[in-house]
Amino acid sequence: MLRGKVGVPAGPMRLSGLVNVACAITNGLVERSIHLEVLQGRKLSCQAGCGACCRHMVPISAPEAFHIADVVERLAPPRRALVEQRFDAIVARLEREHMVAELLDPSFTSDPYLPVARKYFSLQTACPFLEDESCTIHADRPVTCRDYNVTSPAAWCARPYEHEVAKVPTPMPLAVPLARLTSRLTGLRPQLTPLTLAPRWVGEHDDIRRRVWPGPELLDGLLAEMGAPGAATRPGSGASQ
Description:
- With 241 residues, the protein is mainly alpha-helical.
- Helix content is 44%, strand content 7%.
- The chain is built from ten helices and eight strands.
- Helix 7 (175-186) crosses helix 10.
- The longest helix has 22 residues, at 18-39.
- The radius of gyration is 18 Å and the shape is globular.
- The N and C termini lie close together (8 Å).
């Protein structure tokens, strides 16, 4: 069992405010999982400068999509323009491949063996935030990125459908509970959206992006979707996992 404290504001909070909580929990789970791998004599292959996984279809929840939109909006104007151009170029390519509708279908999942996931990887489309094979928003990367770590040879990650890549086993990625909570609060179907289509999806759901709920209520909801009984304690304090 992972134990720790996370804080949320007592007042109104947007869904994107849950992302830091989900990332903190994910970081703890991943750290523990990697430690267990080391105890078994296995060594983590992932390191800076290896961006093979940054060409996969990265599924993110609505709160994470809203958070990514916030990250882009906070960039300095020249940098923001460059990142937005990259997003636009990727969307244009996916449209040429007739993949956008399928990728934005709520039935899309995080299964890496879906035909559309394999086709996406075959395009070798780098994440808009990837530069010099390293993530430029590492502190803000989605939970799926945090959850993906391997102990098999790093070279295999460039050809994942030809090798049995050994991913470090972790519990359910928190993108799924975040998606379920969003569905329960808004009436939308539970959905995971590829990171590269996040700005397009957010543009169509700006009303939900700006809605607010009491922070402790959102935290309680996330814990419930995780199957981790618990409740936000006093306003402004933390909640144990």
